[in-house]
Structures are given as structure tokens and as C-alpha cells.
């Protein structure tokens, strides 16, 4: 065998081996890689082993050159195998990245975005922030002092009925009768704020509340409220109405109207239901009123010195109105086709 033939054979070997190792990388396939390794580097009958036989057939004086070349090719094949193995084990990612075909169309990543209720919450916080109300948070697991007692809702009040609340089956808390529950209203935060701070108070709190309601197009067992509280000297219902009007027109538009209907809440006196007129219908958004003197006393304020107003509105209702959503369940069934529209 001539030296030229021998070298040609080795070159062919390197060329076809590099193609096949490249293939294994493309397929990100360990099995293919292993088969290729055996085909070329297999100790018993690999193609390299086969080529080595040619070494014995070249002329004696060509042997040093042929031997040197053979060793180079052996090293080269081992390198090809090693780098293919590294690429594949480095994860499909590296394998794919190294074989990126820039002529193919790109893969557009699917981006998520902020849930419509969270968007609404952010916007409402913003509006109230401009009116000087700072946003605070309270716990969703409450005791009956904050959810009822301090809000002037006594033990025998029907609002405390176990059928109307999610009481928790856990050990007693430090306050009240020791019952804990998922809060049924954000009015709990009024108490938590007033317990820790002296007037003037000007806060909003937006968060989840829980009620075992029958679920339908307008009811869900979990929903969100925006609670507002302002306590200062000489606060009147005119201030309440003014703030709610500004709030409503900022969120729904300039032409919105506000209406108060007499109502009752244990923690406000007088109490009202808040309606907003929008696109020719009156819609009920929640309750409001002047903070009851008993509540001010419960947190250690003097009702002769300060007065205040509070309101609690449904966030879902506001969001649904604004976007024309007619079933609350759409908001919570995680259907990305629906959610992607907001
Ligand atoms: N917490 C009341 C409710 O959930 C709403 C409300 C808040 C009423 C503040 C008056 C004052 O129905």
C-alpha cells in the first residue's frame, strides 16, 4: 500500500466520522453517539482499528510518516467523539444552539402578563394614591376581634353565622373568642390600622375576602374589595361623597354619577349603599358610611374629637363593568384565551 493511499484512507475516515458525530449532535442522541463511537473507535472492529492494518503494509521507509499520521487521526477521532459527547450532555440547549439555523423563522416566546384583577387593583391604588390615601395590607386569616367584635358586630349577630363564614379549625388566638376565619371583608384592616396609629388616617386596603356563597355569574367564594378609611377632625358625609365621586369618575369616566341609598352596617352610622350610574343604569358597588362611634372607642379614639368615613367596594364589579365582562367565573378559570385580552 502506498503512503498516499494510506493517508487518503485516513483522511476519508476523519471526514465521514466528523459528519456522523455532527449528526449525533443534531439529534441530541446518546444512542447514535455511542454507535458512532463503536463504528470508528471500537477496540475490536472499529474503522480506525481496520485502518491500522494498512500501517503494516506501507513501505518500510514510509512507516515513520504513516505512523505519525495515524496517531494524529486517532487523536482527532477521539476529540470529535469527546466534543460531541460534551455537547450532547451539556443539554439539548447547547446542542441546539450550536446547530442554530439562522434562516429558519424565530420561535416567539409566549409572554404572560398581569391578571386583569391585579391590573385593576394597581389602577385603583393609583387613583386613591393621588387623593392622598396610602395603600396598606392586612392578613387574610383573621380573628373574630378584627373581623367582627371591634367592628361592632356582636356574638349573636347573624353575620357571624358559621354558615356564612369560613371558620378555621385551628387553636385559639389571643383575641376575642379565639375563632379564626378567612376574613369576610377588608373592614378588618380599618381596625388594624387604627389600633396602631393615631388620626389623621387616610388609607385604602385592597385584597381578597372569602364567603361561602353559591357560585354564579356575579358571586364567587373569593373576591376582592377596596376598603377606604379616613379619620380626622370634622369629617362629614359630604367628604365621603366627594371622594367616592372623584374615585368613580377617575376609574369609569367623567360622566359617572354617584347615588347613596340608606342602608345598615354595624360599623358605620349612618350607612349607605353606593350606586354608580354608568351607561344609563344604576349599579351597586358596595357599602359606606360614617365610622360608628363604638368602633372609634374600640380602638381607643375619642368619638368627640374625631370622626371618619369608610367604604368597601367590590373590585371584581369595577373591573367587570369597565371591561364589559359579564361572568365573574371568567376571571378565575385560568383560560389564557380570555386572560390574554386584557
Ligand atoms: N365591609 C362591608 C361589606 O363587605 C362594606 C363596607 C365597608 C360598608 C366600609 C361600610 C363601610 O359589605
TrEMBL record:
EC main group: ligase
MF GO annotations: ATP binding; magnesium ion binding; phenylalanine-tRNA ligase activity; tRNA binding
Annotated InterPro entries: aa-tRNA-synth_II, aa-tRNA-synth_II/BPL/LPL, Phe-tRNA-synth_IIc_asu, Phe-tRNA_ligase_II_N, Phe_tRNA_ligase_alpha1_bac, Phenylalanyl-tRNA_Synthase, tRNA-bd_arm
Subunit note: Tetramer of two alpha and two beta subunits.
Domain Aminoacyl-transfer RNA synthetases class-II family profile positions: 124-318
Lineage, broadest ranks: Bacteria, Pseudomonadati, Planctomycetota, Planctomycetia, Pirellulales
Gene name, Swiss-Prot/TrEMBL: pheS
Family per record: Belongs to the class-II aminoacyl-tRNA synthetase family. Phe-tRNA synthetase alpha subunit type 1 subfamily.
Record-given protein name: Phenylalanine--tRNA ligase alpha subunit
SUPFAM superfamilies hit by this protein: Class II aaRS and biotin synthetases (SSF55681), tRNA-binding arm (SSF46589)
Catalyzed reactions: tRNA(Phe) + L-phenylalanine + ATP = L-phenylalanyl-tRNA(Phe) + AMP + diphosphate + H(+)
Residue numbers binding Mg(2+): 269
Textual note on the cofactor: Binds 2 magnesium ions per tetramer.
Organism: Blastopirellula marina
CDD domains: PheRS_alpha_core
Keywords in alphabetical order: Aminoacyl-tRNA synthetase, ATP-binding, Cytoplasm, Ligase, Magnesium, Metal-binding, Nucleotide-binding, Protein biosynthesis
Enzyme Commission number, as recorded: 6.1.1.20
One GO location term (cellular component): cytoplasm
Pfam family, one: tRNA-synt_2d
Amino acid at each position: 500500500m502506498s503512503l498516499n493511499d494510506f493517508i487518503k484512507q485516513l483522511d476519508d475516515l476523519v471526514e465521514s466520522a466528523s459528519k456522523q458525530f455532527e449528526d449525533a449532535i443534531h439529534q441530541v442522541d446518546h444512542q447514535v453517539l455511542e454507535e458512532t463511537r463503536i463504528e470508528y473507535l471500537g477496540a475490536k472492529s472499529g474503522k480506525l482499528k481496520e485502518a491500522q492494518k494498512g500501517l503494516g503494509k506501507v513501505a518500510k521507509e514510509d512507516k515513520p510518516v504513516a505512523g505519525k499520521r495515524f496517531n494524529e487521526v486517532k487523536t482527532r477521532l477521539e476529540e470529535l467523539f469527546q466534543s460531541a459527547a460534551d455537547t450532547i450532555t451539556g443539554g439539548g440547549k447547547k446542542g441546539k444552539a450550536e446547530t442554530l439555523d439562522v434562516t429558519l423563522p424565530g420561535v416567539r416566546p409566549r409572554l404572560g402578563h398581569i391578571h386583569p384583577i391585579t391590573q385593576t387593583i394597581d389602577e385603583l391604588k393609583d387613583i386613591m394614591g393621588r387623593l392622598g390615601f396610602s395603600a396598606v395590607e392586612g392578613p387574610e386569616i383573621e380573628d373574630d376581634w378584627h373581623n367582627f367584635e371591634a367592628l361592632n358586630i356582636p356574638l349573636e349577630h347573624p353575620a357571624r353565622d358559621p354558615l356564612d363564614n369560613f371558620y378555621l379549625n385551628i387553636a385559639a388566638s389571643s383575641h376575642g373568642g379565639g375563632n379564626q376565619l378567612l376574613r369576610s371583608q377588608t373592614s378588618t384592616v380599618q381596625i388594624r390600622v387604627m389600633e396602631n396609629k393615631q388620626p389623621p388616617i387616610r388609607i385604602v386596603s385592597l385584597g381578597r375576602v372569602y364567603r361561602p356563597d353559591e357560585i354564579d355569574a356575579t358571586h364567587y367564594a373569593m373576591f376582592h374589595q377596596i376598603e377606604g378609611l379616613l379619620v380626622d377632625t370634622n369629617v362629614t358625609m359630604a367628604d365621603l361623597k366627594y371622594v367616592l365621586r372623584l374615585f368613580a369618575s377617575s376609574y369609569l369616566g367623567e360622566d359617572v354619577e354617584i347615588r347613596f341609598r340608606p342602608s345598615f352596617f354595624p360599623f358605620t352610622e349612618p350607612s349607605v349603599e353606593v350606586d354608580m350610574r354608568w351607561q344609563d343604569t344604576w349599579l351597586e358597588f358596595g357599602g359606606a358610611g360614617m365610622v360608628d362611634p363604638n368602633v372609634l372607642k374600640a380602638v381607643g379614639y375619642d368619638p368627640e374629637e374625631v370622626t371618619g368615613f369608610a367604604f368597601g367596594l367590590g373590585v371584581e364589579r369595577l373591573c367587570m363593568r369597565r371591561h364589559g365582562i359579564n361572568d365573574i367565573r371568567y376571571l378565575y378559570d385560568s383560560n389564557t384565551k380570555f386572560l390574554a385580552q386584557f
